[in-house]
Amino acid sequence: MNIKEILLKVGFYALVVVVVLYAVFPFYYAIISSLKSGSQLFEITYLPRHFEWSNYASVFIEQPFARNIFNSILVAFSVVVLSLLMGVTGAYALGRVQFRGRGLLLFTILGVSMFPQVAVLSGMFELIRGFGLYNSMTGLTLSYMIFTLPFTVWVLTTFMRDLPKELEEAAIMDGANPWQIITKVFMPLMGPAMVTTGLLAFIAAWNEFLFALTFTLTNEQRTVPVAIALISGASAYELPWGNIMAASVIVTIPVVGLVLIFQRRIVSGLTAGAVKG
Q1: Among positive and negative, which fits the CA dihedral 239, 243, 249, 255?
Q2: Is residue 88 domain-resident?
Q3: Is residue 277 part of a domain?
Q4: 38 and 72: one domain?
Q5: Using CA atoms, how far apart are residues 228 and 247, in angstroms rounded to an integer?
């Protein structure tokens, strides 16, 4: 190995270290801050001196944070299930059925996802209030799907197009109807793509703030991003930063855990269809 190869290898690993530190350090510092109390929160330290767990207890004692977590889990999983169910059926129609205007419809679906949330906020508020869904989990679920369903349909349609046509023809010859083709033939092959889109939909619903703030009124119906944002004090210096950091760590752990559990399927889903052979 010559000097040039050694330098390239060292540079590569140095870049990897920088990227990992850049991505992981904010979460690490949040953990360290959540274990501090009092004036220690304003001291810059990178290693914990004392493990102060009172911040985590205070989060659940001083507000209905357990209920907020349950609300976020309920809404996020509802969004994932509905988005995948509607997404896979829509992907079958757009990816396998020939009809006029299919391309225009697909680009329209993609275009909907490009609108910023604030642009549709007033219209969504009138719809939610008109259907009597204000301050309810159902209202949040339906409103979240306006930005999770478009990219779910788009990603699954791209994957659906690459599936062998012979599988569908064989299923039709055996007397399978479209729903049986989707559930028994295509869905087992679309596992990685569905895991990837489902996880992205979960993260989007889990972290959503604007709709959750606008469409909920009581603490019992709020999700965790709003609950954390509404932790308040008399001034900026009197804010319970320890509680805020503890709450932030608590709500980040499920997302990190899901990514670690499904990381292989996520990579498979992101690279599916990239190479044809």
Answers
A1: negative
A2: yes
A3: no
A4: no
A5: 7
Is residue 213 within 8 A of residue 79, CB to CB? The reply is: no
Half-sphere exposure of 87 (CA within 13 A, CB side): 32
DSSP string across 15-37: HHHHHHHHHHHHHHHHHHHHT--
Rounded mean pLDDT, 142-150: 90
* Residues of the domain holding 28: 1-52
pLDDT for 9 beyond 70: yes
Same domain, 116 and 165: yes
CB atoms within 10 A of CB 153: 28
Contact call for residues 64 and 219 (beta carbons, < 8 A): yes
pLDDT score recorded for residue 234:
45
71 and 161 both lie in a single domain: yes
pLDDT at 237 over 70: no
pLDDT at 59: 87
Please check whether residues 206 and 256 belong to one and the same domain.
yes
Residue recorded with tokens 């007033």: 122
Gyration radius from the chain CA atoms: 23
224 and 244 belong to one structural domain: yes
Long-range contacts of 221-228 (CB under 8 A, 24+ apart): 221/71, 221/135, 221/136, 221/137, 222/68, 222/71, 223/68, 223/71, 223/72, 223/75, 223/140, 224/65, 224/68, 224/69, 224/71, 224/72, 224/250, 224/251, 225/72, 225/251, 226/68, 227/63, 227/65, 227/68
- Which of 14, 31, 52 finishes a domain? 52
Confidence (pTM): 0.83
CA–CA dist 133, 164 (Å, integer): 43
